[in-house]
Every structure is written in C-alpha cells, then in structure tokens.
Amino acid sequence: MDLQKLPEEGYVLSEDVHLQRMLSEFVTEISFAGNLVVIHCRPSTAPAVASAIDDVDLDFCVGTIAGDDTVFLAVDDASHTKNVLKIIEQLSGTE
C-alpha cells in the first residue's frame, strides 16, 4: 500500500490521488443513464481516465469501457448510479 501525505494533514492512497488528478485534468462533462455513468473527456484521454478508475476500488463500480473521448462506467445497480456520479463529480471538480 503506497500512501501520500496531504498538505492539509492526513494521508491518502496514491491511486486515489492519481484518479483525482486524471479526472480534474481531463474530464469535461459527466452524465448518467440507467446504470451507466458517462464521462466525457478531452480527446485521446478516455483510455487513461478509464484505467485510473479501474485501478481504484470504487464502491458499486463493475468496470469501464473507453473510446477516444468518452468513458462508460458500469454501476452494479441503477439505484447506486447517482452515488457514483456524485463521487466522480467531486473528484473531477465538475459539481
């Protein structure tokens, strides 16, 4: 387990910091449909964003599919989609 110290005190897992950086730098828009969170990214960055999501153990997420500028994030049940959407929005700063 690789931890990083935060400037505002405390520690966080390195993969969580990596995900937050990827989302905040590359995500342009987020929406949802049923049990899918649709993440629009800058051109050619979706595979890297999907990989960062896959590396982190997000609750209720079962996997991603990435195109060039869009990631589909599958959620285990439609009732959990809004929870996952909120987490992704918070990490990306698109709230």
Could you characterize the architecture of this molecule?
With 95 residues, this protein is of the alpha+beta class. Helices cover 37% and strands 33% of the residues. It contains three helices and six strands. The chain has helices at 14-26, 46-55, 81-92; strands spanning 3-5, 11-13, 27-33, 36-41, 61-66, 70-75. It has a four-stranded antiparallel sheet. It has a two-stranded antiparallel ribbon with strand order 1-2. Helix 1 (14-26) packs antiparallel against helix 2 (46-55). The termini are far apart.
Order of strands in the sheet with most strands: 3-4-6-5
How are helices and strands ordered from N to C?
A: EEHEEHEEH
| Relative strand content | 25-35%
How many angstroms does the end-to-end distance come to?
A: 29 Å
Number of helices: 3
Main location: cytoplasm
Protein name: Arginine repressor
InterPro entries: Arg_repress (IPR001669), Arg_repress_C (IPR020899), Arg_repress_C_sf (IPR036251)
Keywords: Amino-acid biosynthesis, Arginine biosynthesis, Cytoplasm, DNA-binding, Repressor, Transcription, Transcription regulation
